[in-house]
Amino acid sequence: MKKHPRLDNWEENELKKSISRFPERKERFTNHGGQEISRLALPKDIDEDYLNNLGFPGQYPFTRGVQPTMYRGRFWTMRQYAGFSTAAESNKRYRYLLDQGTTGLSIAFDLPTQIGYDSDDPMSIGEVGKVGVAIDSLADMETLFDQIPLDKVSTSMTINSPAAILLAMYVALGEKQGVASNQLRGTIQNDVLKEYVARGTYIFPPKPSLRLITNIFQWCSEQMPAFNTISISGYHIREAGSTAIQEIAFTLANAVTYVQTALDAGLEIDTFAGRLAFFFNASSDLLEEIAKFRAARRLWARIMKERFGAKKPSSLMLRFHTQTAGNTLTAKQIDNNIVRVTIQALSAIFGGTQSLHTNSKDEALSLPTEDSVRTALRTQQIIAHESGVANTVDPLAGSFYIEELTDRIEREAATLMDKVEEEGGVVACIEQGFIQRHIEDASYDYQEKVESGERIIVGMNQFQIEENIKPPLLRVDPAIEQAQVESLARLKKDRDNKNVNASLTHLKKAAQGDENLMPVILEAVKQYATLGEICNVLRAEFGEYKDRG
Amino acid sequence: MTEGTRKNRVLIAKPGLDGHDRGAKIIARALRDDGFEVVYTGIRQTPDEIAVIAIQEDVAAIGLSSLSGAHLSLFPAVVDELKKADAEEIPVLGGGIIPDEDIPQLKKAGITEIFGPGTPISGILKAFRDACERYHNKR
């Protein structure tokens, strides 16, 4: 049979280019019996329907993945979110991880840092260093990255409302290390819209928040071309209780809002769209999750091409990080959680994720211990090296059920996105509580099914046992709060406060106008103005968002 | 209104900076479905704000939720604020990511019940009914 011209075209272009840049992991992939594993299984007849809806990996609409060889070229990045206590403690953990061969860091900040309070703020009492590392100023960032060369690692930072400030600190730190900003690689989460409906670390109202985000898009397109400027996150929407379809719909609706805001500010679509990244949840319904990831990729590609007229392939690609679903972990028979995480991780791999965090078995109880984190990482390594699922591209494509479900999730998510637009768009929907209500209803419905036993959670509402085992738990020393407060007091005494004040006054003026705030914030962090001081200037100008409860 | 038909009024509150409100919202809704009158504060309340709202709203019990690990400082702080305002008879219950080994310390600090992950809602509703009854009987 004659080869389809589109297949020929893909092999000659995308595939060849990809393999010459990133050779496959092996010359020949074989299964246990020694038979060769094909790179990409295809239907007998490549028809219009196949080409329009699935196509070839690395080609529009990217249903089968964003790279032509997917994990045959390189495994997904195994990126474990970590951070606690002080910058010095976290630095030790990161250097341990790097010694173990990690190339990507993922920084967890404590809640005061995420909400723009210094460690000595009354609002920070009890929270300093608890769920992540406390960063008050550039001085803490210098400690956090001590002996870690920024041109050798990619750094993901889970920071949203104050993303511009942490990004500026990272750039300033790079300068000190002699690494130019265009050499810096990594991601900032920077997705404030989902904070209002799911995650809760908002500071400012939506409008000034969107301005900060657009400022970052623009500044990075010129100064940091290798940095992901945002990680548009469905993860927390799902954790808050949404369905899989709501996760996709609300996340892509948020993404559309960021893109439209940037276009309205005069940015050109292809200058920033390629640096948008996504972040999804991998929950326990294996087939639904696989279909969800594939549907999200196709829906986003279509939106970018048809609605926004993006041209560059990278602008059309939905690249995403995945984390397994924290809310599915049980506090009973916690070893069962390892099995749950394995199923969830498999869905992400079948779904074509670019990076993955696997949760640890003890996370329904506390931050994970080093032992349980290792098991979580080993889970990914077993899938990568032993299961064989990474040796062929998009292996479930063409399954009647998977394709039917992929179509349905795409269709229903698109319908819900239309509904959001009809209601006035994302910002109006947040202000009216529309999105929150949808999530809460789904969350309550799920909980009722668990309570009634209609939904079985193994070890929790069925197959229970009497347990009297106390797993070892990680504790953050409460004394670090005082230590952090004291080091902040020293910093405020030792720095040149005249320069700090001048930079903060400059920031205030800039915030009142409409210039890009990134250079002004960068100047302030270089003077060791603190995160809290910078946020307080912006709070005074922008106001604060309040939860409606 | 007679004692027998009085609707139980309770406060569900999120102290500290934690944004995980899925559990708090589910409990608030389950309490409402069970006939309670529920005031929900929304996230990011300080202990003194919670005490002030509890007193203003004249509630018979307070349920606190925290998943960020700050419960050992925040839950007792709410009890302290109630004491300062001469309202320590309002019972305080708590839930969230709370390891079993922290329960004795929290109880000693005056938190009457602690609900860890996986607690069935029926048990939580009963605890609130009992707490409200004790409160009304005392008054």
Can you tell me about this structure?
The complex is a heterodimer of chains A (549) and B (139). With 549 residues, chain A is of the alpha/beta class. Chain A has helices at residues 5-21, 48-53, 87-99, 111-114, 138-144, 163-177, 193-199, 206-223, 235-239, 244-264, 269-272, 286-307, 313-316, 336-350, 370-385, 400-422, 426-431, 434-452, 479-494, 497-512, 518-526, 531-542; strands spanning 77-78, 104-107, 154-157, 185-188, 227-228, 230-233, 276-282, 320-324, 355-357. Chain A has a domain at 70-452: Alpha-Beta Barrel (TIM Barrel), CATH 3.20.20.240. The model of chain A has no long low-confidence stretch (mean pLDDT 95). The longest helix of chain B is centred in the last third of the chain and has 18 residues, at 121-138. Chain A binds chain B through residues 111-112, 114-115, 117, 122-127, 130-131, 195, 198-201, 239-241, 327, 330-332, 364-367, 440, 443-444, 447, 451, 460-461, 470, 473, 476, 478, 546-549, and chain B through 16-22, 25-26, 29-30, 40-44, 46, 68-70, 72-74, 77, 97, 99-101, 116-118, 120-122.
CATH homologous superfamily (4th level) name of chain B: Cobalamin-binding domain
Number of helices of chain A: 22
- Strand order within the widest beta sheet of chain A: 1-9-8-7-6
What's the quaternary structure here? heterodimer
The helix/strand series of chain B, from N terminus to C terminus, equals EHEHEHEHEH
What's the count of strands of chain A?
A: 9
What's the CATH topology label of the domain at 70-452 in chain A?
TIM Barrel
What is the CA-based Rg of chain B, rounded? 14 Å
Q: Between the first and last Cα atoms of chain B, what is the distance in angstroms?
A: 15 Å
User: Can you name the CATH architecture of chain B?
Assistant: 3-Layer(aba) Sandwich
Structural class estimated from helices and strands of chain B: alpha/beta
CATH superfamily of the domain at 70-452 in chain A: Methylmalonyl-CoA mutase
Low-pLDDT runs of 5+ residues of chain A are none
Low-pLDDT windows of residues of chain B = none
